Target: histidine kinase
Amino acid sequence: MTPEELRADLTRSGLNLIGQALSIFDADLRLAVSNRQYQAMFALPDELVQPGTSFEETIRQLVHRGEYGPQDDPEAAVASRVEQARTFQPHYFERQRANGRWIAVEGAPLSQGGWITVYTDITEIKRQESLLRARSEELSEQVLDHAERLAAANRELAATNAALQEAQHVLMRTEARTRQVTEMVPAHIAHLDTDYRYTFSNRQQPMVFPGSIGDVIGSTVEEALGAQAFATLRPWIDRALAGESQVFEMTHKPSGRRIRIALTPDRIGKGAYVLSTDVSAEVQAREALSHASKRSLAAQLTSGMAHDFGNLLTIILGLQGRLAAMPLPAEAADDVQATLAAARRGAALLERLAKISGPREMSLQPVELPPLLREVVALARPSLGDGVTLGLSVELPETSLLLDPGALQDSLLNLILNANAAMAGPGHIALTASTSGEWIEITVADTGPGFSDEALIRATEPFFSTKKNQGSGLGLSMVYDQTKLVGGTMRLDNGPDGARVTLRLPRRPVTRQMVLLVEDDDMIRTDIRSQLTGLGHAVIEAASLSEAQAMTDLPGLTMILSDIQLGDGLGLDLVADRLPVVLMTSMPPGDPLRNDAPGPVLTKPFTTSSLATALAEASKDSA
Model:
């Protein structure tokens, strides 16, 4: 017996326990299910109680038997009742059958089409009513009529309640489906009342606003998102509550995400509907496209003129260098030094253009951040203007982190020197660093005039500058690119005293590993061993699968780095062991063996940065 047949059999068994006769016809006027009482009450033959029997055949049987009384035209009576069934309406009535018995008939439509009808034998109730009328001469005719009407009304009320319960059941199923669909949408869908309180939510708010509460129904926006976010949202919400649809974007400062919010007034009730979507990837793609077009221009410029321009600068620097070595009048010597400074600045600009237009790679290394930040401060202080102070505040654990030290140092020096130029006089620059969840936050803030509205929007665009022909417009763009390259974000805003730039970098703690390196090529194994030891890890080597399997229980071993395809087997066989495994291969993407790997695969040849990232992620996943 199939599961469907078993369920149908169980359904019929349950219906047979009901005292009343019951039948259900579908939208095509065919019998879907009935119970034994239905067949017994109307003495129907077996072929008329089989699923699929047409309603018309059943009615024809009952009409010709006289169930509905004498009929001048039986076929017309059948057609009339079939037509009524096609436009089925909920009903309750009582009728006396040809055999003298009374039945109550109550029917209700089904949400998926068709109807259910329940037949109750009320002969005994009718007899009691007749006896009561015949034997109770002391009761007035009016009381008896009222009693009969009340009994009929009660039965009709019961039928109505059954129809209402069915309607409520349908409504509950519809609401459950609607909630299930909304909870599958990768966005937060909600409804707010006029007190900024959530009356509906699909429970996706933490996905869009990390750190917010999930069950927000009954809470206000301020309670769910915090006072700062509510202050940003309130003017938009007020306009939506006043009847104006709103679509806008905001930055969720705790996470750095860019959120697009649509507010639609509730035209029926009071309040507004909310649709919040994380568009960070879209915004980054737009910015990347804009930057790419300008980098392409820079590449064309540098490729076309870098050689000739470099030669000219070399000649100018050589000639001016000779002049500088000669005894010259003071005024001429100053001119020579100014020419040398301008030529050197041109060479530096050419180098920066080449960097921004050329390919960029990150170089992750184990770095202790506090000493690096102190070194940045030491390098920057001699270049600061008169009366400008530079302070450092570090709240970081003294542990190594995977960072690109050169790029980070360049970025911070660029931000500090930008702040120094923006103040154009005495002031203070504050360099602070702390951890925030899975991120490191490094902030450079100054006491200058702050960013203009245009700068807040365009500052990361290549060649955009507010320095009036004194800047290349490449500094913040390079900082932005270097930060994005390591998986971080950059935020520009104005603090209480001036401009503020915050870099958020992924916090990748360096855990010193004892790595079992499994590689059957001696030269490749030697090269990868150098990469691992350069990252500070201890290494044990194996040249085959069998050799590696004999070493996986060595004391202190914490990780396995293995080629997928070994001379005597597959590195995939090591995945079942207790240790985290990072796999590597020179096979192209899409190869079946690569597809069998349980996680990301390093493609040979790989950089030390890629290796460091893979080991850190594997260590994090196994923690």
About this structure: The longest strand covers residues 427-436. Residues 365-506 form a domain with the Heat Shock Protein 90 fold (CATH 3.30.565.10). The mean pLDDT is 79. The radius of gyration is 41 Å.
